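Worked example 3. Consider a protein that binds DGJ.
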Amino acid sequence: MKQLPYLKNEDGLTTLYVDGAPYIALSGEIHNSSSSSLEYMKTKVWPNLRGLYLNTVIVPVFWELMEPVQGQYDFALVDGIIEQAREEGVRLVLLWFGLWKNGRSTYAPSWVKKDYQSYFRARYPGGAASDTISPLCGAAVEADATAFHSLMKHLKEIDGEEQTVIMMQIENEIGFLGADRDYSDKANKQFEEVIPSGLAALYSNNGNWREVFGEAAAENFMAYHYACAIEKIAKSGSEAYPLPMFVNAWLEQYPWKAGTYPSGGPIAKVMKIWKHAAPTICLYAPDIYLPNFAEVCEEYTADGNPLFIPEARRDMVSATNVFYAIGKHNALCFAPFGIEDFLATATNEDGPDFGIMMALNIDMSAFILNGTGPFLAESYRLLGNMMGIINRYRGTGKMTGFLQHHNSGCLLTFSKYDVKLTYKRQEDGKPVSGGLVIEISEDEFLFAGIGFSVEFLPKSGETDKIGYIQIEEGEFMNDQWIKGRILNGDEAAYMISVGRKAAALKVEMYKYN
Ligand code: DGJ
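Given these inputs, the predicted complex is written out as structure tokens:
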């Protein structure tokens, strides 16, 4: 069998290899229910993805549909999705919607849901049952791990050679909602016991959960038990077919209280516990719907965790954020959510019912689209055609990114020049400004992105003047620079700029006195 996709860390830089070559997923995640019907995929999903220049699609597969009767597997959907992806010429990242999806256990098969004695629920304070099967329920974790093993074994058989599927996400936005921890009898008992010895060693501290973790005890307790469960599931799948496996996070947010976001999920502050308890997991992926995109990227890469964004906002910012994530943080994947809508001709009949969503207090930001599709497509087209260049500069210190967030611009420092980037004023219905820049040589620079002007400045204390040799507009075609206009005269006299749609500039400067 040929080498499987894998992640490799070289000098602190993690690269995803697919077919033996570095790979960055320009991607999108489809809606939760789309892949439950091959016909729906064929008519409503794939046609809308074609103009987006995706190289990868993120698609859920469902435990309830794969193992409707215990021990009897039906892989028809999985097979069909892989076949369709091959016809479309894209790779897949599969999401295993097993025991937990956004905290709840709605994707467990009926034989698990109904047998709530064997597959017991996490409980709220006072004892009421939740819709979440407890991560401390060994039988449920075992059942999920067995199913996941079968899925991976099957994938190996049908996809081991072609490798359309490149990575697996285990469950989705894990954690307990509605309380800070599980208050089932088993959880209550374990919460009073001393923490496991591995954790005690990790924190150089001993005692029960409250003694070691104080106010954060409940969340750390849940993180540990979810991570142990995920490790069992991931390991069992990995033994059959070791694709890289990751988990994603519903981020910590207002009102900053575990249980209002899923308690125990892999948010940055509990990643230490997750890494300890779930060594089979190769990375922790933030779902970034919050507006502080740069901050989240920073937080999720702080500890050497590779940046992989399996869900991102659906509004204009995504067309810009992808440049920043790749340029500044060497992202391995960028994927707005509900990607099949981006180029769809909007028929509200098929869309979500906002009235019901408002009544249920569901966050609607994930469903709002304002003509983002064409902008995202342009960004992906440009980036997709310069992947070889990007991969050459990843981790060299010669590539970085910049992003507007209520600021007017930024100053970047390179070996011979400082570069002042001025952002276009933010306008409704237009992407924010941002991009990436590569220092090709001391005097040559490549800019790719949206909505900014560039000015070269001398380093402080220098008296040399700066001039330009050549400023080229252009784009890439399979990593070859295709020159457009050469900017001079009026077009170069003041500031050189990139407009509101993704575009590239190649600039050669010089100094004189
Ligand atoms: C985050 C979840 O991870 C997705 O599966 C989806 O439900 C989105 N939210 C949009 O609601």
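Take a moment to read the result before moving on. The first strand starts at residue 6 and ends at 10. Residues 32, 102, 172-173, 287, 311, 337, 366 surround DGJ (CB under 6 Å).
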